[in-house]
Amino acid sequence: MIRSVLCSLRDFSRLPLLLQAAWLSLALGLFFLVLYLWVFNLVDYGLDGASVESLTGKVLYVDRGGVLVEDADSGEYTRLKAIRGISYLNADADRLLGHTVTFTHLRDALLTCTLDDQPLCNAQCASAMECLDSRRERESPSGMLGMAFSSSLVCFGLHWARRRRAVPRAGIF
User: Fold this and answer.
1) How far apart are the first and last CA of the chain?
2) What is the full DSSP assignment across 58-87?
3) What confidence score (pLDDT) does residue 3 get?
């Protein structure tokens, strides 16, 4: 798609293949740069201004994505999500299911959980801002950004080396 857009530009299809690849990589790099800036500046994942809360309740359902908890005090059901970059469950479902567990969470993002003073979930951050930064870092396309720009530089370099080698040298011999 990007190549077809670039081919519609004047004289792009007449460029050597290495230059086409370089410009295409540069365009992809700019796209990933915009995406990177968007992730770091606009997306808050619902964590902005959240405070760490505590919840004790009976675990009704456990899956890879989180837990469903019945609050011991109010009887309300709460779904807490185990989100990559924020926390992870290091216990199997049988160990949690049906037991009364103490949780800490940021809105619906699970931080820690303990059963009989034994940790079953590990938090990878301690505050909303720290979790937000961790999540943004995990979600950003920084690897793709670097790859696109580096491949663009390699293609430009190869094209330059090829042109330099093709130019006849004037000399005595």
Assistant:
1) 49
2) EEEEEETTEEEEEETTT--EEEEE--TTTE
3) 61
Q: Is residue 151 one of the residues assigned to a domain? A: yes
Report H helices in the chain: 2-8, 17-41, 93-96, 128-139, 142-166
Q: Is the dihedral of CA 21, 24, 29, 30 positive or negative?
A: positive
Residue 30 belongs to some domain of the structure: yes
Task: Note whether 108 and 122 are same-domain residues.
Answer: yes
Is the whole-model pTM more than 0.85? no
- Considering the domain boundaries, does residue 1 fall inside one? no
Share of the chain above pLDDT 90, in %: 15
CATH number at residue 121: 2.40.50
Q: Which domain holds residue 25?
A: 20-48+140-162
* pLDDT exceeds 70 at position 105: yes
On whether the CB atoms of residues 82 and 65 are closer than 8 A, the answer is: yes
Are 115 and 99 contacting, i.e. CB atoms less than 8 angstroms apart?
yes
Which residue, 49, 51, 87, 53, is CA-closest to 73? 53
For the record, the structure tokens of 25 come out as 């990589």
Domain count, the chain: 2
- Whether residues 57 and 104 share a domain: the answer is yes
Angle at the Cα of 31 from the Cα atoms of 6 and 124, rounded to 5 degrees: 160
